[in-house]
Design brief:
The protein is α+β, with helices and mostly antiparallel strands and 122 residues long. Helices cover 18% and strands 36% of the residues. The chain has 2 helices and 5 strands; from the N terminus they run αβββαββ. It has helices spanning 2-17, 91-96, and strands at 50-62, 67-72, 83-89, 102-110, 113-121. 17% of the residues are buried.
Amino acid sequence: MKYAMILATAMTVGLAACGQPQETPAATEAAPAGAADMATMPMTSDAAARTGTGTGTITAVDAAAGAVTIEHGPIPGVGWPAMTMRFTASPAVVEAASPGDRVEFDVSVRDGVNEITAIRAE
């Protein structure tokens, strides 16, 4: 919501500067169905982690960075819509992950860090 208002203000200022008609989009307009915008997703900045379980397909594994990218469905436990995103993961999780695998996984979100805590073949 905050980013939508910033964007709307920037558009208004930019259009005013070039003499174009101004039309400020409503900050509450919903994104098209199925659209995923990480800027509007709830993030936690306190010490309490949010957790959830998701399913999806692994699209990339970066063992050097300790990361796994998954194209996943909605994860209601953390308030996320379907999208493709990169997660941090322990060496054991990274070792168990292979691109193309369909998986069920547990995720923990704390202070903006999204970590896969467990992964299982689906």
